[in-house]
Fold these 3 entries.
Entry 1:
Amino acid sequence: MEPEHFLPAAAFVQGGAAVSALDYKVLVLNRAFVAVRVISAKRAFCLLLKDIAEVIHVENGEYVNYDFASWTEISQMARSFEPDKHDWVRTVRFDMAVPKIIRLLGYDRLPAQIVKLNRRNLFARDRNQCQYCGRHFATNELSIDHVLPRAQGGGDSWENLVCACIKCNARKGGRTPDQAHMHLIRKPVKPKRNPLISIRLGQDRYSTWKAFLDEAYWSVELK
């Protein structure tokens, strides 16, 4: 069965647009059960079809592994007895449950321990909240502010960059928060894991990831 034979059986709305179940995120573990990255469900199915990976599924508090064939059989039973516990994609013959976690069978490398400093991760860390007025904004209504302005020696770092709405950024100008009589909602810090991962961990759909995401141990990069 080729990946293009999978059809979305359900969709959810994100940012005003419908998102296919094939776009749901799947946590990838290496052979030693260490989290290495997050990929789309479509990519995960490709790896399963090629026998490069297996599904790791939680059953009665224990983690059970399935190859593609056995996961297909489990999916058909689950579709009949617990359809609300899974997200689904439709093939030409049957419905397939979207796995939450897969494990690479021949990959031992550990993930990089670096969270990239970029706009996407900054907005995710601050959750699209202006760090001065506290209001939440759409991404296109936010800017990045240097807490210590560049003109005063401030650089580009996790500890010196925050989200700010256009109005607050203009009000602050080239001053420090103290000089502008403004206060930060929270002190900016470098996140221990990719902030987009932390956001997903707050969703029930990805609750099974938590056991593999010890933030004192590793970070996970989105690919």
Note: The helical segments are 41-49, 68-81, 119-125, 166-172, 195-201.
Entry 2:
Amino acid sequence: MAMRNAPFPGLIPAAALACVLLVVTGSLSAQIAVPAPPDDPAETAQPKMELWKALVLGVVEGVTEYLPVSSTGHLIVTQRLLGISVDTPRAKDAADAFAICIQAGAIVAVLGLYFPSVRRMLAGLTGRDPEGLRLAIGLVMAFLPALVLGVLFNKMIKAVLFGIWPVIFAWIAGGIIILAVARKPKPSEEAPGTLPVPDLRQALLIGCCQCVAMWPGTSRSLMAIVGGILVGMGMRRAVEFSFLLGVITLGAATVKDGLEFGPLMLETYGLPALVTGAVAAFASAVLAVRWLVGYLNRHGLQVFGWYRIAAGVLVGAWWLS
């Protein structure tokens, strides 16, 4: 789908990322108390989440989900800064599930913005659009590595890597890699209506690259875009394929955690907080996605490399203090 390029493209990512960075750094001076475990198990129940906290988490999710800066890493840090408890297994499961389930808003945003491509895939499944069918098959092939590794290692990843220091390391390392390898790309020459259709081998390679992002802080969209570029896609096609692949990958994670931890999440935070977070994620994702394709096609990834390093250094310094 062709997207309109916003004026002053250099200001848009700076403003969007600055807003997110303010969320991260604005609370650096706040003291986050870690209460001792109460003797009475009934006291472990948390109050419902304040709606303003759900709104902040939704905005962070929507802005960062499809940018190559890692939404999971930002949400983990933002939860800590907002004082959202993760001190018990139940509290951590509820917080992790909330961060994943509000992705539904960002998923709906991409489905709307790329609806022509989605419609062509649906037509392909009914035998009316061969190119749409090839795209659908390519997306399924690219999703398979994440499906297999997610089933095998999901619990271990959440237990070991869903923390501040793994995120900080991934932010800084990813930023250095971007600055080392990124350069201003040649604009994609494909016509706007052309679907981003890789062959099966290329799709599998993109899917393997996406799996690296199971380490929080790495960025699923970054790894999928890099994978698309490695197999020879232009920037526009790589970004669109990454977004559409995200619909499947994020959708599967949302459904899984919703089914497994939905009752606990709703008991802990309440339905209004979940709805607020998802709606905020939808609105902010629409704004972020609309300009990203054109920006990356003309300016490359460098700004995101500098942002990742700055975020990692600031959060690391705060956490050490």
Note: DSSP finds 13 helices and no strands in the chain.
Entry 3:
Amino acid sequence: MLGTVDPSPPVAPAQSLWRPGPRRLARLVLGLWIFGTGEALVVLAALGNSPWTVFAEGVSGHTPLSIGSATIATSAVILLAWLALDVRPGLGTIANAILIGIAIDVTLSLLDEPSAPAVRAGAVLGGIALVGLGSGLYLGTRLGPGPRDGLMLGLHARTGRPVALLRTGIELSALVAGVLLGGRAGVGTLAFAVLVGPAVATGLRMLPGDPSRGRGERT
């Protein structure tokens, strides 16, 4: 979902994409759960969701799916598009497609929508901060790109178009489709678009690389 390009060095050999050690796996799961929790806080603020969650909310309004389930279903459809692209998935790819949606639904079921404007604004900012922290954790495991990142990288390899242009086009397409379906966009969407990049960069600086590397843990 919901995610940015991994700026870290290329991933390790293929087997390490599917056979992480305990620390690496724990970091992946924790990072994705925090990411999904952050997305849910932005939803609860009711000030506008991130582009892909606008789309998921729009889908959920026309189907029996919850926002989290729609997020998972969207990820599955995007992964099918990988069949035509030369992108190598990993355990992180599958975990990303499933865990973020579950974390969104769990968080939404546990918390009530705030009413005070200041609390709503705080939920947006806190949610973006959690997305950045979660990204720093899970991207550092180098266990494969998320579905949306993989789509972007595959299109880049196939077309030669700049990554920034492709990602912007993908995000805008999701946002427009989501709004047309009835998803909620607003000042929170703008805040997410402006702040998520710095938040992810901060998360990566705070939590660089895989913590198991150099500590004798098998990857």
Note: Residues 19-206 form one domain.
